[in-house]
Amino acid sequence: MPVATIAPVELPSLLCITAEPLDPADALAFVHHPEAGGVVLFEGTVRDHSAAGDVTSLEYEAWEEVARERLAEIAGEMHDRWDLRRSALLHRTGLLSVGTVSVIVCASAPHRADAFEAARHGIERIKEDVPIWKRESLTSGEAHWVMGS
Q1: What is the distance between the alpha carbons of residues 21 and 99, in angstroms, rounded to a whole number?
Q2: How far is Cα 19 from Cα 102, in angstroms, rounded to an integer?
Q3: Mean pLDDT across the stretch 10-37?
Q4: How much is the average pLDDT of 82-98?
Q5: 82 to each of 21, 59, 86, how far by Cα in Å?
Q6: Which domains, from first to last, does the chain contain?
Q7: Less crowded by CB within 10 Å, the N or C end of the chain?
């Protein structure tokens, strides 16, 4: 996978902010570990509607330096709280059409509960605390910036 920026961390984590397409197979390959009995992959995609109307695309922008730091912090939280073997936190930037993968969170652990809980924590924290913004374009021709959820 071509990667625009990878955060240097000592944890067994793949952290990426990129304008290149995200491939879930890359995240799965990275988190694979012989001790992992559970692997969870969350894939967020651009949907065709929102509360504002029918969506044609989303444009993501990131404050990359801070976003990389926050992804590293989130990975640290995941590894501190759950018995993980590896994790991957990947987010796209740029103009994305409906159906395009915008974010991937993947976690591997000896037991499924840890993998599920860590992945859920990862995506929720990304939405709350990573400086990535999206501009939503609608079929009406309108476009507006959307706050994180």
Answers
A1: 12
A2: 10
A3: 94
A4: 98
A5: 29, 33, 11
A6: 5-146 (3.90.1170.40)
A7: C
